[in-house]
Amino acid sequence: MAKQKPIINVVFVGHVDAGKSTTIGQLFYQSGILSETELAKLREEAAKHGKQGFEFAYFMDTIKEERERGVTIDLNYKKIQTQNYEVTIIDAPGHRDFVKNMITGTSQADAAFLVISAPHGVQEQTKEHLWLMRTMGVKHIAIIINKMDMVNYDEKKYNEVKKDVGEMLKKVGINPETTVFIASSGLKGDNVAKKSDKMPWYKGPTVLEQIDKFPTPEKPTNLPLRMPIQDVYEITGIGTVPVGKIVSGIMKPGQKIMILPGRTGKGILGEVKTIEAHHEQLPQGEAGDNVGVNIRGIGKKDIARGDVICDASSPAKIVEDFTATITVINHPTVIAKGYTPVFHVHTAQVPCQFIELVSKIDPRTGQPIQQNPDFLKNGDVAVVKIKPVGNLVLETADVNPYMARFAIRDAGATVAAGICKTITEKK
Fold it and tell me: Hey, is 258 helix, strand or coil?
């Protein structure tokens, strides 16, 4: 079996109609994954909906409503092999109503392309997208200035847009000097997987080349073991098998573990017997692996989805309360003290109450602009104090960023996203 290439998750983010889905479709077409025949079918389908030129986008936008409206609603995952990586490409919606899906996609990404339309330049949501990427911990961001065909491949226009985007990058703390900008046309296929002859002035990489230039994602194997449980199965002849993704550390047979909070709410001790993936026993599991684990001394009633398997020598914390930085994205009214929505943290869903609104923050500088505001509304970034109603396992961003991010949902929508800063441990 050939050695598997490292996996990298790349998300494409940008304003509605900036051409994200088209760029991705073109990438798959030029790389030979999307065939001529399939493309011809999509072209026909696009014409039928009066959407000529949307054929590449249709490759990613598979939902009927998306085809009719021409917007990306859900997250789409497709695989592509590059020279260095096996890439999972995530097409994240740019449309305001669909930001909740974007959070999920972005929180899984190692690197991102922010797609900007050359004719439109920076748009209102572009800053929100950048800020979300920062909150969700995406470290590597490249900028695609797309639709260059619509500005006659003009270098001057490209430089104008590049300058505006640069100003915005500075505001969220990204250095434009070290950021890669790509001049492209997703529709015409310029600088997507193949170099364009239309822009002799452009000397940078294609989109495909840039994917290979992103640094290999660090596997956080140096952090203590954390595996949030997705499901628990009873398997005849084996026993209780929790399944999930190891988010940090390494798991080995014989290792002493603690499951938190567990049925007791105080944690349950156990020992790893065997680790399996795809019906094969593994000598060890590491960060990034989806595995099933058989644990000595643990029954199905002891554990549930949302519990976390930790290294017994350095377990995570069950929190009494915590402070976090949040971005309010999509709340129908305002958020005030006493508000108790559901927090989605790793695989857990726990109602939590806002007990204090500490300060509002200027998203551009990260500095507080107002102490103890009465309420928070869409677009606000704030430091807040939260008390879980029930047992929640959480860590701070400094200790383990993979266990610190969360989304806040209410009535079926994501209202905010955030990251945990400090914790008071439950006694």
Answer: strand
* Same domain membership, residue 17 and residue 160: yes
pLDDT digits (tens, 9 = 90+) for 149-207: 999 999 999 999 999 999 988 877 789 999 999 999 988 989 999 999 999 999 999 99
- Write down the residue that tokens 């065997």 correspond to: 274
Confidence band (pLDDT; 50, 70, 90) for 92? low
CATH number of the domain where residue 161 is located = 3.40.50.300
Q: Could you tell me which residues are beta bridge partners of residue 143?
A: 114, 181
Dihedral sign for Cα 58, 64, 70, 75, please: negative
Q: Spell out where 246-312 has E strands.
A: 250-251, 256-260, 268-277, 280-281, 285-286, 290-296, 308-311
Looking at the fold, whether 104 and 184 belong to one and the same domain comes out as: yes
Structure tokens at 314: 């350095």
Q: Give a yes or no: residue 218 inside a domain.
A: no
Read off the CATH number of the domain in which 324 is found. Answer: 2.40.30.10
For 266-307, how does the pLDDT look when each residue is reduced to its tens digit (9 = 90+)?
899 999 999 987 678 889 998 877 788 999 888 888 899 889
- CA 85 from chain centre, in angstroms, equals 18
Do 141 and 12 belong to one domain? yes
Residue type, 125: Q
User: Contact 72/91 with Cβ under 8 angstroms?
Assistant: yes
Q: What is the amino acid identity at position 48?
A: K
Q: φ, ψ for residue 262 (rounded to 5)?
A: 70, 175
Q: Give the predicted TM-score (pTM) of the model.
A: 0.65
Return d(Cα 309, Cα 224) in angstroms, integer.
10
Q: What is the domain extent for residue 207?
A: 7-213
8 Å CB contact between 135 and 399: no
Residue range 246-262: mean pLDDT, rounded: 94
Number of domains in the chain: 3
Claim to verify: residue 329 and residue 414 sit in the same structural domain: yes
Token couple for 65: 């409503």
The residue assigned the tokens 């939902």 is 63
Most confident of 30-39, 232-241, 312-321: 312-321
| Residue 96 · residue 125 · CB < 8 Å | yes
Q: Round to whole Å and give the CA distance between 222 and 286.
A: 10
DSSP state of 194: S
pLDDT tens-digit map of 364-402: 667 899 999 999 998 788 999 999 999 999 999 889 988
